[in-house]
Write a structure and sequence with these properties.
CATH topology of the largest domain: Immunoglobulin-like
CATH architecture of the largest domain: Sandwich
CATH superfamily of the largest domain: Immunoglobulins
Order of helices and strands: HHHHHEHEEEEEEEE
Length: 212
């Protein structure tokens, strides 16, 4: 899979001589599955290039919080911060069940009857990755990336009462790039990503590194 994705990336990134590009295109055309992946990625990159881009400012929240009076949060506040703050969480499959049970109990204690978020374990030895985005005014948020061939409707996030949109995706170990798609039009960079990578159109994709 990594080799095939590398061929697609080379063709779409450009920067090679015409003969080399033609040879790679012939390889893609000879493999139906590889051609389908190439077409899907090319369409997604075209949508990124021509669509509205809303780069999120990673410093916005910090700037606002510095202006607020500091107060020590109570137990409930600390639990809610742990559960709902925007970040990328990586859970090993062996510990996911215990983490879900602890999270459910913490929500009950902190919110006194509030519903725990839905979680599901997947078989196959992968890693459950939870991705969050704070977008209280959005009607729909999806995530598109190399893990779903940049399809904008394959992984739709669920909105919580606190304004955070959340999704848990089972992934195999490896490096992925992704962006959020807000209301089907605006492409938003994750301000909480661990790293970023140029997308070739003057913007940056978020980088997700999944480890075992």
């Amino acid at each position: 899979m990594k080799k095939e994705q590398g061929i697609i990336d080379q063709v779409l990134d450009g920067g090679m001589d015409p003969e080399q590009r033609l040879a790679l295109l012939q390889v893609i055309e000879s493999d139906a599955e590889l051609k389908d992946d190439y077409d899907s990625t090319a369409r997604a990159l075209h949508a990124v290039k021509t669509g509205e881009r809303l780069p999120a400012s990673a410093s916005f929240t910090n700037d606002v919080m510095r202006r607020l009076p500091r107060a020590k949060p109570g137990l409930g506040g600390r639990i809610r911060e742990f559960l709902f703050r925007g970040r990328v969480l990586q859970w090993n499959m062996a510990t996911a069940a215990g983490a879900v049970m602890i999270a459910a109990l913490a929500v009950i204690v902190a919110l006194r009857g509030g519903e725990a978020p839905d979680s599901a374990l997947q078989e196959g030895g992968g890693v459950i990755v939870t991705i969050n985005l704070y977008a209280p005014d959005a009607e729909k948020v999806a995530v598109a990336g190399t893990f779903n061939k940049w399809k904008t409707d394959a992984n739709v996030l669920r909105k919580g009462e606190n304004g955070y949109w959340t999704i848990s995706i089972p992934l195999q170990p490896g490096d992925y790039t992704y962006m959020f798609v807000v209301d089907g039009q605006a492409w938003v960079t994750d301000p909480n990503a661990e790293a970023y990578r140029d997308d070739g159109f003057g913007n940056k994709n978020a980088v997700l590194r999944v480890k075992t």
